[in-house]
UniProtKB/TrEMBL annotation:
<feature type="transmembrane region" description="Helical">
    <location>
        <begin position="228"/>
        <end position="247"/>
    </location>
</feature>
<feature type="transmembrane region" description="Helical">
    <location>
        <begin position="164"/>
        <end position="185"/>
    </location>
</feature>
<protein>
    <submittedName>
        <fullName>Drug metabolite exporter family transporter</fullName>
    </submittedName>
</protein>
<keyword id="KW-0812">Transmembrane</keyword>
<feature type="transmembrane region" description="Helical">
    <location>
        <begin position="134"/>
        <end position="152"/>
    </location>
</feature>
<feature type="transmembrane region" description="Helical">
    <location>
        <begin position="28"/>
        <end position="47"/>
    </location>
</feature>
<feature type="domain" description="EamA">
    <location>
        <begin position="4"/>
        <end position="128"/>
    </location>
</feature>
<keyword id="KW-0472">Membrane</keyword>
<dbReference type="InterPro" id="IPR050638">
    <property type="entry name" value="AA-Vitamin_Transporters"/>
</dbReference>
<feature type="transmembrane region" description="Helical">
    <location>
        <begin position="59"/>
        <end position="79"/>
    </location>
</feature>
<dbReference type="InterPro" id="IPR037185">
    <property type="entry name" value="EmrE-like"/>
</dbReference>
<feature type="transmembrane region" description="Helical">
    <location>
        <begin position="85"/>
        <end position="104"/>
    </location>
</feature>
<keyword id="KW-1133">Transmembrane helix</keyword>
<comment type="similarity">
    <text>Belongs to the EamA transporter family.</text>
</comment>
<feature type="transmembrane region" description="Helical">
    <location>
        <begin position="197"/>
        <end position="216"/>
    </location>
</feature>
<feature type="transmembrane region" description="Helical">
    <location>
        <begin position="253"/>
        <end position="271"/>
    </location>
</feature>
<dbReference type="Pfam" id="PF00892">
    <property type="entry name" value="EamA"/>
</dbReference>
Length: 284
């Protein structure tokens, strides 16, 4: 059962890009971000009406990074990039963790980790090759959004965040409120969703946001970040599959090779230690 819960987050998040491409292209990405975060936060607070135990300053910082700025950047990227590309860039989180540990904590990666990091970077270069003609703003937004998640994940590992359902609810509520002035400034007055997109927004609010964010935080606490790093690879697999099969996106051979290289590097990073080749043991 814990692994079923863990899978909910990446599977549901992987549908975001296809959902935007098929049903939400006519809406502003900023207001879509508002309509995703704010109702989800209210829904979770109705289920668990409690005040957070985390200090408001820290909670506001998490809400900004995890929800406010993250959702805005995510939807801009989703609107400007093929879902397969956006989903794969979002899966570079372990690579960004490695870089932050090196730059901030001065933890230099071993040769194995350095080679895997360079392998993942090579995959990104293949994915973003000049002939692909990808939107640079979309690429920058996706990488920036992933970096914000990396920073906030580091903080949550160090802070006593209390009840994760309450934490998720307040992050979504505060993040949604933060997005309103940005959406109003960038896209004008609120866009009231039409009935045509209501089913898509209901999915986005309930499964894609409320359930998925709770499942992710619950699983991080109960299964640990290493297992969840492995489970997170389901996200780009779902995004790529839906993009190609349903949306009709087409990728060239170099982009497919880049996606495979990135996923392989992340897979090798997350293999249990006893499954990796040890040259000392190999020599007997």
């Amino acid at each position: 059962m814990p692994f079923v819960i863990a899978l909910l987050a990446p599977v549901f998040w992987g549908t975001t890009y296809a959902l935007v491409s098929l049903y939400l292209q006519d809406m502003s990405p900023y207001w879509v971000a508002v309509w995703r975060a704010l109702p989800a936060g209210i829904l979770l607070l109705m289920l668990r009406p409690r005040l957070p135990t985390l200090a408001w300053s820290k909670l506001s910082l998490l809400a900004f990074c995890n929800i406010g700025a993250f959702f805005a950047l995510l939807f801009i990227g989703a609107y400007r990039l093929p879902g397969a590309v956006a989903g794969t860039l979002g899966a570079t989180l372990p690579l960004i963790f490695l870089i932050l540990a090196w730059l901030i904590d001065k933890k230099r990666p071993g040769m194995k980790w350095l080679l895997l990091g360079l392998m993942g970077l090579g995959g990104v270069i293949l994915l973003l090759n000049p002939s692909a003609d990808l939107d640079p703003i979309g690429v920058l937004c996706m990488l920036s959004a992933t970096t914000l998640i990396a920073f906030s994940s580091r903080w949550m590992q160090r802070w006593d965040v209390g009840d994760f359902l309450v934490l998720t609810a307040w992050q979504l509520l505060l993040g949604g409120l933060m997005l309103i002035p940005l959406a109003w400034f960038m896209a004008g007055p609120p866009q009231i969703p039409s009935m045509d997109v209501a089913p898509s927004l209901i999915w986005l609010v309930t499964a894609n946001t409320a359930v998925a964010y709770w499942a992710w935080l619950w699983s991080m606490r109960n299964l640990g970040p290493e297992i969840m790093g492995m489970v997170a690879l389901v996200n780009p697999v779902v995004a790529v599959s839906l993009g190609v099969l349903i949306v009709g996106e087409a990728l060239d051979m170099r982009q497919w090779a880049g996606i495979l290289v990135i996923l392989l590097s992340l897979l090798l990073m997350k293999l249990p230690q006893n499954l990796r080749w040890n040259p000392l043991k190999a020599r007997g």
